[in-house]
């Protein structure tokens, strides 16, 4: 069982990563914050020791992924209606790639996130996703292709708007 100081240190180091993983799945800040709290509470009662910070980070990412999938499977998340009618502000230019990645299908989004945003190797990420390494690289390749097509479409639409077509 982990002590409070260990969990506090883990929170300081990895809460941002866990929050981003939760936002990637849940797309709602309040739900993501709840999931982060649940994950660190789960860490508090985790019986086994970790083999360093990399092992802890990997465990937290997998726990976040599983928690978010449980939240999304819950009937409440499927039937509730958001009352926020205020549109989100336009994202700055540097966030357009992140927004495009968030629109990808889950299996490609996961692979790209773990490889490019978290810096895991193909072997590490494939273990976290419980797939073969070749399947992981196929997902990364296909995700990049989809992302490229999406970015080209948005670029073409922008050109059409500017030219008045």
Architecture overview:
This protein is mostly helical and 165 residues long. The chain has two domains: 1-81, Rna Polymerase Sigma Factor, Chain: A (Orthogonal Bundle), CATH 1.10.1740; 91-165, Arc Repressor Mutant, subunit A, CATH 1.10.10.10. The protein has helices spanning 4-26, 29-44, 53-73, 75-79, 96-102, 106-117, 122-129, 133-163. α1 runs antiparallel to α2 (29-44), α1 packs across α3 (53-73) and α7 (122-129) crosses α8.
Can you describe this structure in just a few lines?
The chain is mainly α and 165 residues long. It is built from eight helices and no strands.
Salient structural properties:
single chain; 165 residues; mainly alpha; Rna Polymerase Sigma Factor, Chain: A; Arc Repressor Mutant, subunit A
């Amino acid at each position: 069982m982990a002590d409070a100081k260990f969990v506090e240190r883990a929170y300081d180091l990895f809460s941002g990563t866990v929050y981003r993983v939760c936002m990637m799945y849940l797309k709602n800040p309040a739900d993501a914050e709840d999931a982060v709290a649940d994950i660190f509470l789960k860490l508090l009662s985790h019986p086994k020791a970790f083999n360093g910070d990399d092992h802890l980070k990997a465990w937290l990412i997998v726990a976040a992924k599983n928690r978010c999938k449980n939240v999304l499977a819950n009937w409440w998340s499927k039937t509730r209606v958001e009352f926020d009618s205020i549109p989100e502000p336009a994202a700055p230019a540097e966030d357009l790639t992140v927004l495009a990645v968030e629109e990808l299908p889950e299996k490609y989004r996961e692979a790209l996130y773990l490889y490019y945003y978290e810096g895991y190797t193909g072997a590490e990420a494939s273990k976290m996703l419980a797939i073969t390494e070749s399947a992981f690289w196929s997902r990364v390749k296909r995700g990049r292709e989809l992302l490229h097509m999406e970015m080209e479409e948005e670029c073409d639409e922008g050109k059409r708007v500017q030219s008045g077509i």
